Amino acid sequence: MSFFNKVLASVGIGAAKVDTILPKGSYVIGEKINGVVEIKGGNVEQPIDEIYLSLLTQYTKKSDDKEYVQTAVIAKYRVSEKHIIAPNEKKEIPFSIALPLSAPLSQGKTRVWIQTGLDIKNAIDPTDKDFIEVLPLPVMKAVISSVQELGFRTREIECQEAPRYLRGVQSFVQEFEFVPVSGAYRGKLDELEIVFVVKSESEVDLYLQIDRKARGLGGFLSEALEMDERNVKVTVSQADLSSMTRKLDEVIRRYS
Per CATH, which fold does 2-135 belong to? Predict the structure, then answer.
């Protein structure tokens, strides 16, 4: 019976189970995530080589005019090393990890989750999946609010494969796409795209793509050749909170 149980456990039947308990569901970028990994033994004793947490999301990758959805590992953490879990034994392993500065916000199509895994030799590794809400830093929040004050509405937010100039830093970026619906930029711009690259909890690089509206034949030719887009990098910080709308307005106006 013992050997038969071991065979079943190796394919996941009657094996150890894992569950991650989080005290809350929402976290600001850079915040500590404290929790507990609960392990419950199965029908047989099993050696656990490693307990790990992976922070994951998905992004769109284009290849040969087709789009593919890729899963990205934002960060991976080792919670504990070797353990022996006895039949029906319960263990609780506390952990504390920092939500990385590169984590995308839980907005638009973006979902972020923590996957907990037990590394068990010669067996299917048990896993657990917990979705979390990633909230913006005050600087990021101010940028989004300011863009809306300038008459832009959010059209789409999604994670895409990182452009060449950022690919060495991370495999994907979260792109915020805005369209002007009122104010000075309505009829002047087609859209405004923003990518946040967080340098610290108080400083963020903004990569702006300012897409000017086509005017006349020359404008349509420029648009067809994608010459109507201006790419601008701007650094904003905690010191800009009170003047964020004015600062962004100056940059967008200069390159419109």
Answer: Immunoglobulin-like (2.60.40)
